[in-house]
Amino acid sequence: MTTRRTGPGPPIAGAGGALLIVSLFLPWADAGGTEVSGWEMLAVGDVFFLLAGLIAIAAAVTGGRVGLFRPDVSFIGATDMLGVAASVMLGWLVFFDFPEGAGRELGVWLGLAGAVVQMMAAGDYSVLRGAPAFPPAAGRDDTASARRSQPGPA
User: Fold this and answer.
1) Among 45, 66, 125, 131, which residue's Cβ finds the most Cβ atoms within 10 Å?
2) Residue 69 located in a structural domain
3) What's the alpha-carbon Rg for the chain, to the nearest Å?
């Protein structure tokens, strides 16, 4: 994963993060005529989804180039990781762990869509096009590996 991204990925990821945040305040469940928002329904997950959305928006604003706590972890990398986690968590909630007897409302589907959009737009697919999975760090001297690949004196 690189810390520099070009193209529409970061703004699309930011839109997915914004959709995830907005969905928290929409109805997620309907139990007996009482609608419950994602913010009311979740104990800790709501804070995680809010954080994931805010990081995605920060990636959109900065273009994903700014390091996050470490120079080799960018906003776009954090957006990708948090988007994957949010997609898995929401997918599990929607399909396997939804409250018994409650109907799934529009907000939970929009939240899942926002998390998936965030994950897909922030992903680094350059490995699929032949780039190395773990490129050498900037400024690192790889002469030792180059020496090992050269044949020794005969």
Assistant:
1) 45
2) yes
3) 20
pLDDT in tens, 121-151: 988 777 777 777 776 766 655 555 555 555 5
Distances, alpha carbon 144 to alpha carbons 94, 97, 134, 139, in Å = 51, 51, 17, 14
Residue 113, token pair as written in the block = 């869509």
97 domain-assigned: yes
Which residue, among 87, 76, 77, 98, has the nearest Cα to 48 in the 3D structure? Answer: 87
> 24 versus 146: which is more confidently predicted?
24
Q: Write out pLDDT tens, residues 46-78.
A: 999 999 999 999 989 988 777 666 666 788 888
Domains: count for the chain: 1
Q: What's residue 1's pLDDT?
A: 46
Q: How many residues does the chain have?
A: 154
Answer whether residue 147 is part of any domain. Answer: no
Residue 145 maps to a domain: no
pTM: 0.78
Boundaries of domain holding 49: 9-125
